[in-house]
Batch of 2 targets.
Target 1
Amino acid sequence: MAMAMAMAMDAQEIYKKYVFNNNNPLTSGYAFFTMGLPASGKTTYARKVLEELNINPNQVIHLDPDDILEDLKREEQFKNKKLKELNKLSIIIISQVFKLIVNSVEKYSFIYYGTGKNWKSYQTMINKANNNGYTTGLINVELDLETAVERNAKRGENSGRSVGRNVISDIHSKLTTPVTEPEKHIGKTNMEILSELVNIVYTIDTSGKVPDIARLKGGKRKTKTKKQRKTKKKTKKLRKTKTKKQRKTKNKNTKNKKQRKTKQNNLIKQNNLIK
């Protein structure tokens, strides 16, 4: 009971901090949810998606359980708690902050940072946001398992913020394995299920040196995939080459026409001289 009261108080304080300690005026009406493995670049590319949609990232509340986790680690009362317990606690607290935001009159815009491994939990939050008049969006950041493990290890060395390989493997399995129930969702992945619930869907492949950002649904402006951009560039080049050839052919025809006309005029002059 005391723990529950402490969490509720923490949620209220965090909510006030997000709303009243923000130096930028908060926008209203947008609710985004991230998906993807740890160290895949969710925070970085969520901001890029906001910019793509002409939304200032500094005018949006960023709900990240990892931030709460770091705060809990510094709290004296939680020093003897295991990391798994603190992680669970941070998710509970951030979920309470989420409810305060969604139920507020102002409908402040926010991004909820998570892996999306529990699609049922995400479904509940997305439906809550939809029912309260938000424009909802899903930002799915894709990265293969081995690269995620490697990047996570490097992040741990640099910032001390990392998770074990088993945790990443478990998340990867839940994101890539189709669900087996309920019947209406059998054969679909978490991403496919959740995409049906939101207004905007972006997917970002961060496995290469240049991330491939694609808008799959909604939004203000379509972002071409790498393949689409390449095809467009090739078509443009072919069109340019074709136009160049057409101009060359046209110039040649014009030149030939002038030569024929000159030849014809010369023949007329010769005939006149003979007469």
Target 2
Amino acid sequence: MADEDGSSLRDRLSRQSEEALGKLASELLENPLVNSAITKAFSAREKAASAQEAAMGALNLPSAADIDRLTRRLRTVGTRLEGIEEALDDALANASISPRDVDRVFLTGGSSFVPAVRRIFERRFGADRVDAGNEFVSIANGLATIGLREDVDTWIVQESDKQ
């Protein structure tokens, strides 16, 4: 049911209620006793938060922000490890071989120092077939060997290939 101005009783009551609540809030905030209590409550909250952070720091406990950063970092690492597993699956599929067909896996480069990366290969091929050594020298040797090949151009990524 609409009034003369087109608003319903519910709309009018809602507006009046909002206005009354706004007026009450203003009056409460203007009251020195209420204002003082609110100010003290906010001050106490700030001091408590500061004390909690100091206590967590003294106990060497991570803050919520630290945990959030760690969670994001773990998701990123997890995504990268999944990418390594997918690349390994693709390499085996493209070579039409199974993990049983591989005699030896030689890990090289900085990632070979990461335990989670090593475990991927150990789970797939068995720890007895996974080895590493001269992790950075082997990369340099491999690049030098590629540089001596007649088909070196097939190994070079051109800027136009990246797009």
